[in-house]
Design brief:
Keywords: ATP-binding, Kinase, Nucleotide-binding, Transferase
GO molecular function, one term: kinase activity
Number of strands: 8
Helix content: 25-40%
Shape: elongated
InterPro entries: Kinase-like_dom_sf, NEK_Ser/Thr_kinase, Prot_kinase_dom, Ser/Thr_kinase_AS
Radius of gyration: 41 Å
Structural class: alpha+beta
Protein name: non-specific serine/threonine protein kinase
Number of helices: 20
Bound molecules: adenosine-5'-triphosphate
EC number: 2.7.11.1
Distance between the termini: 110 Å
Largest sheet: 6 strands, antiparallel
Length: about 600
């Protein structure tokens, strides 16, 4: 079991999605005032741990924190409640209510399609959730069966919409750099596929696709590559399958209009679906049947769709005025966030930039009252302070980079360098700045096309020559080639952004002089022991054995005509030698004696 912050323990994974893994988890202690739901120790919750690559991206972390108040305040019987948001080191997690039941995608795979009545009633509840969030200015943008959980806890199936706010992360380059397709092609509205202005109508389109899938078991535009599916959304008119009653088809067809301005509001959709459900039952009254067939009258185009913050809005559309209130030129997520009422108590208020509180002191959100936050030019961004505060609050298992030179597992014994003339001076190496995720870059401008158009990968992830990623700690003396980096050729040194965090400057180490080349041995053949007494004895032994072999195995004996064995011959040679030495001694003694 893994702790998340100080308050939660991850127990087992429930599922994995494009943006992270959802875990069943347990509350260790009551959460602080910054959480929307304090919870009780021992309580079971669901925690979505965002993918590491997202959590390591300062831009996404900031985005996530900005979404905090959006996520925490969304409460509706058909919306999975977000209880808390955890930032711990490189971990980013959403704490949610645990829903006891499968998601709609799994349910359809296991049980097949719903009856038209059940599908209409289920989608009506999802439309209720959408109506509430749209009224709050929040567009889901990733509506699909996998994001609808079926709460079966009370003996009946209640659809619960989840993953609000996660789609906003998709706007960040953090996802597009992974070359994954952000969003699910089968559920993407034509305007999103084209990068056209988006409003809450994208959720209505998603609801239409979902309703179609609930009744038929598959979405209308599926199969083939993602591009083919997107193309079908743009160009193909869906055909009514035999399983879909006519009244229900009228609703689906209105939701799937290519032009977003022709789609109904979520509220109208919910009402229309209930009317249809009443008129397509087995025992419907003639009036109910007639009302169902006349449902088109209830599905008038939404006069004021909620704009997606940051998305360009079609000129002249009803959403233009609202969107203009957010920012006429570019999307400033802070402006959006600053209008949101604080959630969760006193601490939550500090989440918001100070200027935001003045602009929107709680209460119902009103997009027209958005006050852009006033920022001091050199002051840290309010969300940077918030990010730091969140990290500090949750910091438990911080990971630290360990200099390999200081790593006791990697460090080599250092011998004193021999006294050598200094090597020729190397030019100082250019140290590339290392992107630190603890400090965030300024918020990026929202690009609506970013989600579906290939983007050049952002600089911090761009493939670089290896020397651009060599941190200073990897500088090692020349005799440790495994840590050496190749000298960058001058033309490869590209201009780099200034480093966001200064590393403490380490005094430059003296490069070690290259080792003196090893002298060749004077004994290239390397006879063992040669040059010492042992060597002499070994040599004598070798000569003795060699002589024996030559004596015994060659016709040398017969040539000399001794007929003796090796030992006898050696003995007689030895005796001869002794006699010779003795005779010399005697003759020397005799001559000296005669002389005297
Ligand atoms: N609050 C929750 N309670 C219980 N189970 C949950 C909860 N949230 C998600 N799950 C389960 O976890 C699984 C993964 O959820 P996730 O939202 O990551 O999946 P996804 O919607 O397919 O992914 P994505 O939308 O990121 O592509 C789902 O199958 C869902 O059943």
């Amino acid at each position: 079991m893994r702790p998340v912050g100080s308050k939660y323990l991850l127990e087992e994974p429930l599922g994995r999605g494009a943006t992270g893994t959802v875990w069943r988890a347990r509350q260790r202690e009551t959460a602080g005032a910054e959480a929307a739901v304090a919870g009780q120790p021992g309580e079971t919750v669901a925690i979505k741990v965002l993918k590491e690559e997202l959590a390591q991206d300062a831009d996404i972390v900031m985005r996530f924190l900005r979404e905090r108040s959006v996520l925490l305040r969304l409460t509706h019987p058909n919306i999975v409640r977000t209880r808390d948001l955890v930032v711990e080191g490189d971990l980013l997690a959403l704490v949610m209510d645990l829903v006891d039941g499968p998601d709609l995608h799994k349910y359809i795979r296991q049980n097949g399609p719903f009856s038209p009545v059940a599908a209409a009633l289920l989608t009506a509840q999802i439309a209720d959730a959408l109506a509430a969030s749209h009224a709050d200015g929040v567009v889901h943008r990733d509506l699909k069966p996998a994001n609808v959980l079926l709460d079966e806890s009370n003996g009946q199936m209640k659809p619960m919409l989840t993953d609000f706010g996660i789609a906003r992360l998709a706007d960040s380059p953090g996802l597009t750099r992974t070359h994954e397709f952000v969003g699910t092609p089968a559920y993407v509205a034509p305007e999103s596929a084209e990068g056209r202005p988006q409003t809450s109508a994208v959720d209505i389109y998603g609801a239409g696709i979902l309703l179609y899938e609930l009744v038929t078991g598959r979405p209308p535009f599926a199969g083939g590559t993602a591009l083919e599916v997107l193309h079908r959304h743009l160009s193909e008119e869906p055909q009514r399958p035999p399983a879909v009653p006519e009244a229900l088809w009228i609703v689906i067809e209105h939701c799937l209009r290519k032009e977003p301005d022709e789609r109904p509001s979520a509220e109208s959709l919910a009402r229309g679906l209930r009317v249809v459900a009443a008129g397509i039952r087995v025992h419907s009254s003639p009036d109910e049947v007639e009302a169902a067939l006349g449902v088109a009258a209830l599905l008038a185009p939404d006069p004021s769709p909620a704009p997606v913050p940051g998305a360009p809005v079609a000129p002249g559309s009803a959403a233009t005025a609202q969107a203009a209130a957010y920012d006429p030129d570019a999307y400033d997520p802070n402006a959006m966030t600053s209008v949101l009422p604080p959630v969760g108590g006193a601490d939550a208020t500090t989440v918001l930039p100070a200027t935001a509180a003045a602009g929107a002191p709680g209460g119902a959100p009103d997009p027209t009252s958005v006050m852009p936050p006033v920022q001091q030019p050199d002051a840290p961004h309010p969300w940077q302070s918030q990010m730091r505060a969140a990290r500090d609050r949750n910091e438990q298992t911080q990971m630290h980079y360990l200099d390999p030179a200081e790593d006791p597992l990697r460090r080599r014994p250092q011998r004193p360098a021999p006294q050598m003339p200094p090597p020729p001076q190397q030019p100082p190496r250019q140290q590339p700045p290392r992107q630190q995720h603890h400090q965030a870059p300024p918020p990026q401008q929202y690009q609506p096309q970013q989600q579906y158009q290939p983007q050049p990968p952002p600089q911090q992830y761009a493939p670089q020559p290896p020397q651009h990623y060599q941190p200073q700690q990897y500088q090692q003396p020349p005799q440790q080639p495994q840590y050496r980096q190749p000298q960058p050729p001058p033309q490869q040194q590209q201009p780099q952004p200034p480093p966001v965090r200064q590393q403490p400057q380490q005094p430059p180490r003296e490069p070690r002089p290259p080792r003196e080349p090893r002298r060749r041995s004077a004994n290239p053949v390397r006879i063992p022991g040669l040059g010492c007494l042992k060597g002499c004895l070994v040599l004598i032994l070798l000569l003795f054995v060699g002589g024996w072999l030559v004596w015994e195995l060659t016709p040398l004996q017969s040539w000399i005509g001794t007929g003796k064995g090796w030992w006898d011959q050696v003995w007689s040679w030895g005796s001869d030698a002794v006699d010779f030495v003795t005779s010399i001694g005697d003759s020397a003694g005799g001559s000296s004696g005669s002389g005297s």
